[in-house]
């Protein structure tokens, strides 16, 4: 994420002497996702903690081995969350011990987004019973951010010229002040707690939208 630089092209005295036109410029660039991050794993329950934990560990080991077999590098598989919780039932206002729940979630990094469905199906077929999230991202963010920023500057210039022409005045070609506003990348989330029994789960990454905005001030020529 870049900072928010402010560029002043004229002195404060000049700025106070001349009227100004201030505009918001916006720019967006569409980019195809290049990486997927999938969080999935196993949730097991039971009354004996050691048995529940052992069952969970065996399931997660099977999931990891299955992903390795489809050429997901081991360094692309890491624990995202591991927790042990006590479960209770509430009967007539009383808390009654029910058992234990062990959750172990893995984050899987996929460099080929077209394999996302295969990865999910492989994990599910080897014991995964929860898929908490699927997110897509781009690798060369700076290149797309710069493109969006250039479009935002042009957009601001067009707006300022339109306003000036409508008012019947002229503006300096170079703005007196340019402030870059916070940038964002529109994420593409995919959430699921249950996956249908299909040949390959269809997961479409779509496109990411990189957004840039600038606040630009132009001096009116008198």
Word description of this protein:
The protein is α+β, with helices and mostly antiparallel strands and about 220 residues long. It has 2 domains: about 5-30 and about 140-195 and about 205-220, Translation Initiation Factor IF3 (2-Layer Sandwich); about 35-135, Protein of unknown function (DUF541), domain 2 (Alpha-Beta Plaits, 2-Layer Sandwich). It is about 30% helix and about 45% strand. It has helices at about 10-15, 50-70, 115-125, 140-165; strands spanning about 5-10, 20-30, 35-45, 75-90, 95-110, 130-135, 170, 175-180, 185, 190, 210-220. Strands 1, 2, 7, 8, 9 and 11 form a 6-stranded antiparallel beta sheet that branches. Strands 4-5-3-6-10 form a 5-stranded antiparallel beta sheet, with helices on one face. A hairpin with a 2-residue loop joins strand 4 and strand 5 (about 95-110). The model is unreliable at about 1-5 and about 190-200 (pLDDT under 50).
Top keywords for this entry?
222 residues; alpha+beta; Translation Initiation Factor IF3; Alpha-Beta Plaits; 2 domains; 5-stranded antiparallel β-sheet; 4 helices; 29% helix; 26kDa_periplasmic_antigen; SIMPL/DUF541
Low-pLDDT stretches are 1-7, 188-198
Helix fraction, binned, reads 25-40%
Please, what is the average pLDDT? 86
- Counting helices, strands and paired strands, the structural category is alpha+beta
Q: How many structural domains?
A: 2
Shape: elongated
What is the string of helix and strand elements?
Answer: EHEEHEEHEHEEEEE
Name of the CATH first level of the largest domain: Alpha Beta
Rounded Rg: 27 Å
CATH topology of the largest domain: Alpha-Beta Plaits
The largest sheet, given as strand count, sense and whether it forms a barrel, is: 6 strands, antiparallel
Strand content: 35-45%
CATH architecture of the largest domain: 2-Layer Sandwich
CATH superfamily of the largest domain: Protein of unknown function (DUF541), domain 2
Instruction: Supply the number of helical segments.
Output: 4
Q: What's the total number of strands?
A: 11
N- to C-terminal distance:
39 Å
GO biological process, one term: DNA damage response
InterPro entries: 26kDa_periplasmic_antigen, SIMPL/DUF541
């Amino acid at each position: 994420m870049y900072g928010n630089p402010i560029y002043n092209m004229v002195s404060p005295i000049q700025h106070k002497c001349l009227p100004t036109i201030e505009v918001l410029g916006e720019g967006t660039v569409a980019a195809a996702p290049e990486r997927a991050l999938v969080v999935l794993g196993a949730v097991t329950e039971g009354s004996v903690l050691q048995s529940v934990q052992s069952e969970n560990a065996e399931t997660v080991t099977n999931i990891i081995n299955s992903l390795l077999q489809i050429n997901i590098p081991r360094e692309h598989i890491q624990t995202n969350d591991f927790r042990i919780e006590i479960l209770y039932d509430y009967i007539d206002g009383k808390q009654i011990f029910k058992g234990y729940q062990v959750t172990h979630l893995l984050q899987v990094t996929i460099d080929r987004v077209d394999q996302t469905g295969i990865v999910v199906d492989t994990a599910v077929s080897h014991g995964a019973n929860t898929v908490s999230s699927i997110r897509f991202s781009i690798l060369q963010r700076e290149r797309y951010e710069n493109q969006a920023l250039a479009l935002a500057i042009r957009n601001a210039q067009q707006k300022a010229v339109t306003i000036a022409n409508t008012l019947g005045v002229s503006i300096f070609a170079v703005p007196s002040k340019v402030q870059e506003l916070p940038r964002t990348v529109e994420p593409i989330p995919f959430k699921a707690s249950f996956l249908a029994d299909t040949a390959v789960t269809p997961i479409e990454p779509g496109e990411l939208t990189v957004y840039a905005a600038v606040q630009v001030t132009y001096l009116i020529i008198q």
